[in-house]
# Entry
Amino acid sequence: MLKFIKGHMESITGIEIYPLISLVIFFTFFVVLFWWVFTSKKEYIDKVSNIPLESTNPKN
# Structure
C-alpha cells in the first residue's frame, strides 16, 4: 500500500512544498507556545492551574 501512495504522490507536481510548510507551521507553533510559557505571569498560571480544583457545584 505504501508503494501505491508513494507512486501516486510522485505524480503530483509541486507537492514537495507541503512537507516544508508543515514543518514551518509545526516549528512556529511550538516556538510561540514556548515563548508564551516563559513570558506569562506567575499569578495567571497559578489562577488557571487552580480552576479544576474550584467547586462550582453547590451540592458539594
In short: The radius of gyration is 22 Å. The mean pLDDT is 85. The longest helix spans residues 17-39.
